[in-house]
Amino acid sequence: MTTAAPSATRDQVAACEVSERALRIWPGLDPRSLSRCGCDPDRIAVFVAAETSLSIEVITGILVPLERGEPPFYFG
What we know:
By secondary structure, this protein is mostly helical. It has one domain. It contains five helices and no strands. The longest helix has 11 residues, at about 40-50.
């Protein structure tokens, strides 16, 4: 008898810092679909871009912190 593979939960996706950040910024994302992106920021950005009106470059800038720890954007 085989058992079905468990579906991804927010806890499993949270193992990746970039995925966790994406879920905090865009809570409506499907954690299972997001888990298919792995921890690759580029793949996560493409997935989020399909769900939002933001460009891939902007999403990558939001998800990946700079070396200095400061975001490359300012909301005023």
